[in-house]
Amino acid sequence: MVHSIGGRIRKLPPLLVSQIAAGEVIERPASVVKELVENSIDAGATRIEIVLESGGKQRIQVTDDGLGIAEEDLELALASHATSKLTEDDGLQRVVSLGFRGEALASIASVAEVELCSRPPLQDVASRVIASEGRVEAAAPLPLPHGTRVIVRDLFFTVPARRRFLKSDSAEVARTSSAIKSIAMALPTVGFRLLHDDRVVLDYPADQRHRDRIAEILGSDLGADLIELPSTDGVWGWLGRPEEHRRNNDGIWSFLNGRPIRDRQVQHAVREGYRGFQIPGHYPVALIFLDIDPSEVDVNVHPTKHEVRFRDSQGIHRRIRRAIREALTAEGSVPQLPVGTVAEPAAGLSPRPVREMHADQAGEPPPVGWSREVAKEKVVPEAIGSTLVEEKQVRVFQVRNSFLVIEEEEGLRVIDQHALHEKILYEEILRQREEGGARQGLLVPEPVRLDPSEWTSFCECQEALAEVGLEVEEFGEDTVLVRSVPAGFEEAGIPALLRSLLQRVQDSARGGDVPDLRERLLQTLACKAAVKAGQRLSPEAQEDLVRGRDRAFQPQNCPHGRPSELFITWQELERSFDRK
Fold it and tell me: What pTM value is reported for the model?
């Protein structure tokens, strides 16, 4: 229903205009840091230090060793649409700086108190001004080194509703850390240091080798295995090997003339470059740097400057795709196809029913149905199948290593083995959770290095991970320590399991409510433990899976709602052959 407001049209007051502008650019502490760091880089800084208090909600301080701002320009720097980066009327046609709108400081000052101190090389002391709620006042100078220092206090104190949408301190620090890492990957000559409540979070020295900087951010294992993408037609960077994959585009970092961007056309070109080298449905890890004439691209598409528009987008797409394919071919990468593994009966396995497991039984053997070895002998927890009549014969055979066909009295049942097993495990996980959960403590906690997007997701869903049996805690910069996993998953690859859950969060649960997030994590746990399409099952495993179906509450659909089976009556089959 539309309500008529009435009244005369009037021009909005300057403070309200700035607050509206801030709503487009300043979403959280990470947004503030990004804008201030970009200003520092444009000023020629070689070292930038960021200090946060309470996740950046109470205080953000950015200090650099750049050229500084002259005393007479200090107040003007806090005014809207005032900048030194565009000097001509057609300056937007050739933007070479990271910032150029002249809105950042004014927008920040409309939603927080801003103290700006700066000392150019020829000044003896640093000039200082303080801005708050649209007012700018000069303050006493300070004896600071050459460069600029910006302090932002009480973020969103003028718009309390925005502050209520901020997340925990650790989650906000993670987002800030991710923003800094994106910029740092493009600028290895600039040093970055991030502190939160007197704790060092990031510390990248200046003048690093580019590959060393990337390895420090993404992890030494991944960094050491990257394939170099030689510069061709302005496209260069590093590529992850095809077997190193993600579940979404978060492993693709793209940069335009040193500016981090998120461009769908670039992401699509990268995926197309990996087509045939990587299993379908997997997403590559890649860092793509584009050096393009500024007149050939429009960076003034969105206030955050993440989105851009290329004049020749199809040409850029072709160049990226061709460069990647040539690099992968030269490296000797071969197309990757799903390969089914033969599941042989496991010797010496004596699983206990899941009902006998308790959270404090860290040393007890897990239910085999939850194990990554599910296809060897038992594919469902013994508690599910043990009450069935032993004499019941199940006539079942596997086709295409993906489907089970059962001959029944009324017809043929065709089962998707992955979907059915996923549903059986999902229902068992839910049952255990309702009974208090079964968590398996690790004798030796396992450290896992996370990339920037994974770290951000971890900080936002740490509590939800604990709810589904994964006890994970921070363990230094970019690293977490896994202390326990859901019962039955201790034999799984823990780093891969954790990353799958975090990528699931990135895919569909970011911003969702906590119960919804937990549900998605439970679905992912079942999916990771289930037998896969293309996986050959032993006759015992086939029969065990079918028997487990008889005890499942609703086996006709997987946890995501997709069908897990179809049934063809004998009459339908005979009609198909014109027999009746």
Answer: 0.67
